[in-house]
Each structure stands twice: as structure tokens, then as C-alpha cells.
Design goal:
- The complex is a heterodimer of chains A (108) and B (136).
- Chain A contains 3 helices and 4 strands, in the order βαββααβ.
- Chain A has 108 residues and is of the alpha+beta class.
- Chain A has a single domain, classed as 2-Layer Sandwich (Alpha-Beta Plaits).
- A 4-stranded antiparallel β-sheet of chain A has the order 2-3-1-4.
- In chain A, β2 and β3 form a beta hairpin.
- Chain A is elongated and about 55 Å long.
- By secondary structure, chain B is α+β, with helices and mostly antiparallel strands.
- Chains A and B meet through β1, α1, β2 and β4 of A and α2, β1, α3, β2 and β4 of B.
- β4 of chain A pairs antiparallel with β2 of chain B, so a sheet runs across the interface.
């Protein structure tokens, strides 16, 4: 598969409301390597911790939104229903083509 | 004598330990710096063709200027046509907001941003098993 067949998704992860450190901590020894494995496998480009302590943000690179969703739900905190992700499909800032003389096209 | 031992044990418990000696949970929660602000933009309403033609030709070069100024690290368009996403090289939502509201779509109140300060994925620290350089 070429890189062009893949899509990027901004994955905004939020801990389940009311989840306590006591609930989350037992999963970390499994969650962290499972997360890094997604990066090593080329399924995740970038990863950050949210400063508000409410979760994480990842950039996923997968064939489909369904694949990204399945990978994130398979993480230990996802399986335990303690971390949920909102997926936003993202792509190249094609509007920059205007600097090359391209005409603008208004989306839908 | 027992009380003395208890006091010593309590004092030892209060000593700061190097991170490699902390429990995985404690290491996972060690604070990390805020390094970027993720700006998730959405149109406040669909643009008219006239608005697109008059505003967007200015939005693109002004966005490129923020990139060249080192304020925008990465940018993507939302494939759901709802706006753009920027990873900004700023550490406060105030600075991110001030920069983004100066863009033409911001001035026209046609684009709003949710601003999410982010930093390194701190829990990765639990994968470190060697001694930090400062304590070697």
C-alpha cells in the first residue's frame, strides 16, 4: 500500500467523566506499550498529552476511519470504557495551491 | 524504640526519590511541559462564494506568514469541510487566540478555534528503565 492510500485522523481522546487516577493507573503498564506499538507499527504519527489532564491527542494514519476507531478501541483503556476518541479526518492544506496560481474551490 | 523506627520510616518515605525508583503510576503522572497549542478550527457558518473569493486569497498568505514566523508548526484541512487544524508553537491559549483572531476569517468571525494546550506524552516515562543522566 502506498502512503497516498492512507488517511490521517486527528484523534482527540477524553477520559470517561469521573474516572479517577485509582481507576486509570492499573491500566497504564499495558496502555503505554500498546500505544507506542501503534506508533512503531506506523498507525500513529504523533502523540501528545492534554495539558488539562482530560486525555490525549493522537494523529492516526490508517486506511479508513473504521480502522483508526478499531485500533483505539482495542487499547486497554478503550476496552475498559475509560478513554473515548473523537476522530476528525484531516489532510493537506490544499488551499496553499492558490500560491501556485490554483483557483479556489469552495467545499460543500 | 519502636516509635523511633516509625519516625525514621516516615522520614525516608518523605525523601524525594529519583524517577527511576518511582512506581510506574507515579512516573506516568510526572508533570510534563506544555509545548504546543492544538487549534481545532470550525466555520461558524458556510461561506458564501463571495466571501470565499474575497477572504480566502488573504487567509492563505497570512497563514503562511504564521508558519514562517514559527508560530504554526503544522497545518491540516479538515476533510469534513468544517475548517482547519493547526499545531501551534505557542504555550498559552491566549497567544494562540491572539494570533488566530487576526487571520481574515477570524476577523470576519467566520472561523472559531477550540484551543487545546498539549505536551509530551508523559506516561511513556514508565518505559524508561535506565538511570537518568543527571543521577548517573
Amino acid at each position: 500500500m502506498s502512503a497516498s492510500d492512507k488517511s490521517k485522523y486527528l484523534a482527540i481522546g477524553t477520559f470517561t467523566e469521573g474516572a479517577t487516577p485509582e481507576q486509570l493507573n492499573p491500566f497504564m503498564s499495558q496502555e503505554v506499550p500498546a500505544t507506542l506499538k501503534l506508533y512503531v507499527d506506523g498507525k500513529m504519527d504523533q502523540f501528545w498529552l492534554r495539558h488539562d489532564g482530560k486525555g490525549v491527542v493522537f494523529v492516526m494514519t490508517t486506511e479508513t476511519a473504521e480502522e483508526a476507531d478499531a485500533l483505539l478501541k482495542a487499547l486497554p483503556l478503550g476496552q475498559a470504557d475509560l478513554l473515548h476518541f473523537e476522530l476528525i479526518p484531516i489532510g493537506t492544506l490544499t488551499a496553499f495551491g492558490v500560491l501556485l496560481g490554483d483557483k479556489f474551490s469552495v467545499g460543500k | 524504640m519502636l516509635k523511633l523506627y516509625r519516625n525514621i520510616a516516615a522520614m525516608i518515605a518523605l525523601l524525594p526519590l529519583p524517577s527511576f525508583a518511582q512506581s510506574p503510576a507515579a512516573r506516568a503522572q510526572t508533570p510534563v511541559p506544555t509545548t504546543h497549542v492544538l487549534a481545532i478550527g470550525h466555520f461558524t457558518r458556510p461561506l458564501t462564494l463571495q466571501e470565499a473569493n474575497s477572504i480566502l486569497p488573504h487567509e492563505v498568505p497570512d497563514t503562511l506568514r504564521l508558519i514562517l514566523d514559527g508560530k504554526i508548526d503544522q497545518g491540516w484541512v479538515r476533510q469534513d469541510h468544517n475548517g482547519v487544524v493547526f499545531l501551534m508553537n505557542v504555550t498559552t491559549i491566549e497567544e494562540a487566540h491572539a494570533l488566530l483572531e487576526k487571520l481574515p476569517l477570524g476577523q470576519a468571525k467566520l472561523m472559531e478555534f477550540d484551543l487545546v494546550p498539549v505536551g509530551p506524552l508523559g506516561p511513556l516515562r514508565i518505559l524508561l528503565t535506565d538511570t537518568p543522566p543527571a543521577t548517573k
